[in-house]
């Protein structure tokens, strides 16, 4: 369902985007506004900004289409991220779906940047501030930063080429790549089929579900119009990016509460909370660490999640195909890692909106900044520990259910006065669901000296793999699921009243 929301919002983006290109003028040539919005009459501005105002106030239905386009982009990225987290927590990224995971990651990355370019096109004061932010990040690159800035902007900032160039990339280059990736993604989904949770009749060799035609197709068609209707209602009710409130962009001004769309908020947070460090290297060349370090951390945060499936496959050494989805509790370290990543993302998102948090909740902006700096290191660790213990507790609860059955709430008194609670045995289907998951064994290093006395020390990567394997699947990282013998002994009445 989450993947379908992403697909349908992408279709909505394409449809509304084609309509908007009929009226938008991607030019930074200066004009004097003479449209319907009276507060800006007589103000010099770019053609891009003036045409966006015309779409919003002078073209029938223009503002609604613009709002639908923008809200669809926001929901599109949110659906992709949520879809990827569902895939992550259920282990649906394992073989043979690793390539599809990479395709999804690329789609999310391209969607984020295409959204950034899209809301930068109107050339209003808010979007111009975002482009200025991008220019600062480019300039912070050592050695090549200045050259890249001149190449990208066609001269000094802001120049007259950035909006036309962003427009071309936004409507042609990135969407074209995304359409190709999306087609490949859907082909692989159709070929591999969907994963499924363990249950009666469900194995690693079959697929339980509805046929594509006519059942699923009919439901998918209805769901598309439902998504379109909800986004249209959001666009009609909630204003997003009111460019008329900001005014045209001027390099010497910046708007209050200048916030990017939520999916770029964590990159904004990285720069806002990073101390403004600078060092001089190579005979007086300044290295702006206050921007360069966040520029390095930005892709690292994303790759830290996107590269995890390959790390897990390397640790386990598992090369088999997996079509059964995991319950998150049965992989405590993986679940804790994903939850810690989400915690880090949210902390940085709060850092990107530190001014709004300060004004809305009457807090000190410095206190918020210091909290985010400390939280960048502390929050992921705390969430990791808590989530892991939570998963282990749920595993113990499942084991208790399998061995002793479910609590009925019925209390019996025995003839000698003792009170016991009656447990009802679980049905076979439920027992299968709770015990069908695999539990990888930790990697055990071979002796450094074999039976012939030959010394064969393990390499660095082998020792690292074994250590990580113990951390992922060793004692304290998973609760051994009950065996058939243990269940049989309990069911026969031995050792349990």
UniProtKB/TrEMBL annotation:
Show which residues constitute the signal peptide: none
Q: Which GO terms describe its cellular component?
A: plasma membrane
Its required cofactor(s), as named, are: heme
UniProt keyword annotation of Magnesium present: no
Q: Which GO terms describe its molecular function?
A: metal ion binding; oxidoreductase activity; quinol-cytochrome-c reductase activity
Cytochrome b/b6 N-terminal region profile domain location is 1-198
User: Topology with regard to the membrane?
Assistant: Multi-pass membrane protein
The record's subcellular location field reads:
Cell membrane
EC numbers: 7.1.1.8
Q: Which PROSITE patterns match?
A: CYTB_NTER
| Biological process annotations from GO | respiratory electron transport chain
InterPro entries in the record, alphabetically? Answer: Cyt_b/b6_N (IPR005797), Cytb/b6-like_sf (IPR027387), Di-haem_cyt_TM (IPR016174)
> Which segments carry the region annotation Disordered?
478-497
Q: Which residues cross the membrane?
A: 6-24, 68-89, 101-121, 133-155, 167-191, 223-244, 291-315, 336-353, 365-387
**Which Pfam family is one of those matched by this entry?**
Cytochrom_B_N_2
Reactions that this protein is recorded to catalyse:
a quinol + 2 Fe(III)-[cytochrome c](out) = a quinone + 2 Fe(II)-[cytochrome c](out) + 2 H(+)(out)
Q: What is its main location?
A: membrane
Which keywords does UniProt give here?
Cell membrane, Electron transport, Heme, Iron, Membrane, Metal-binding, Respiratory chain, Translocase, Transmembrane, Transmembrane helix, Transport
Designated name of the protein: Cytochrome bc1 complex cytochrome b subunit
Q: Which organism is it from?
A: Streptomyces kaniharaensis
């Amino acid at each position: 369902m989450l993947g379908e929301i992403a697909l349908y919002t992408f279709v909505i983006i394409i449809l509304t985007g084609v309509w908007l290109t009929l009226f938008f003028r991607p030019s930074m040539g200066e004009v004097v506004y003479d449209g319907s919005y009276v507060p800006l009459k007589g103000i010099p501005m770019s053609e891009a900004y003036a045409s966006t105002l015309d779409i919003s106030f002078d073209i029938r239905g223009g503002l609604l289409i613009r709002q639908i386009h923008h809200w669809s982009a926001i929901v599109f990225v949110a659906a992709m991220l949520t879809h990827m987290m569902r895939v992550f927590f259920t282990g649906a990224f394992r073989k043979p779906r690793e390539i599809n995971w990479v395709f999804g990651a690329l789609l999310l990355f391209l969607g984020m940047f295409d959204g950034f370019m899209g809301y930068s096109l109107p050339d209003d004061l808010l979007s111009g501030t975002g482009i200025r932010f991008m220019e600062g990040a480019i300039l912070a690159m050592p050695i090549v930063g200045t050259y890249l800035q001149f190449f990208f902007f066609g001269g000094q900032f802001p120049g007259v080429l950035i909006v036309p160039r962003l427009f071309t990339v936004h409507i042609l280059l990135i969407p074209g790549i995304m359409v190709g990736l999306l087609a490949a993604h859907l082909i692989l989904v159709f070929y591999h089929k969907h994963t499924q949770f363990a249950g009666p009749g469900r194995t690693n060799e079959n697929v339980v579900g509805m046929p594509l035609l006519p059942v699923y197709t009919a439901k998918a068609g209805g769901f598309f119009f439902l998504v379109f209707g909800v986004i249209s209602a959001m666009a009609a009710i909630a204003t997003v990016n009111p460019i008329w409130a900001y005014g045209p962009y001027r390099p010497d001004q910046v708007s209050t509460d200048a916030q990017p769309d939520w999916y770029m908020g964590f990159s904004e947070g990285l720069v806002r909370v990073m101390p403004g460090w600078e060092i001089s290297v190579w005979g007086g060349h300044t290295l702006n660490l206050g921007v360069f370090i966040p520029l390095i951390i930005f892709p690292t945060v994303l790759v830290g999640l996107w590269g995890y499936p390959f790390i897990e496959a390397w640790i386990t050494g598992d090369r088999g195909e997996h079509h059964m989805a995991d319950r998150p509790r049965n992989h405590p370290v993986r679940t804790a890692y994903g939850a810690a990543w989400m915690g880090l993302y949210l902390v940085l998102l709060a850092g990107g909106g530190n001014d709004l948090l300060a004004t809305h909740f009457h807090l000190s902006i410095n206190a918020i900044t210091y909290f985010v700096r400390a939280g960048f290191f502390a929050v992921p660790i705390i969430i990791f520990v808590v989530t892991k213990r939570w998963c282990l507790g749920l595993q113990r609860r499942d084991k208790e259910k399998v061995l002793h059955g479910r609590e009925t709430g019925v209390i019996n008194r025995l003839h000698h006065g003792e009170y016991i609670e009656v447990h009802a045995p679980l049905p076979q289907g439920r027992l299968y669901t709770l015990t069908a998951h695999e539990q990888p064994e930790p990697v055990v290093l071979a002796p450094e000296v074999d039976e012939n006395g030959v010394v064969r020390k393990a390499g660095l990567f082998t020792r690292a793999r074994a250590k990580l394997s113990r951390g992922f699947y060793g004692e304290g990282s998973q609760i051994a699921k009950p065996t058939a013998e243990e269940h049989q002994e309990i069911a026969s009445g031995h050792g349990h009243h």
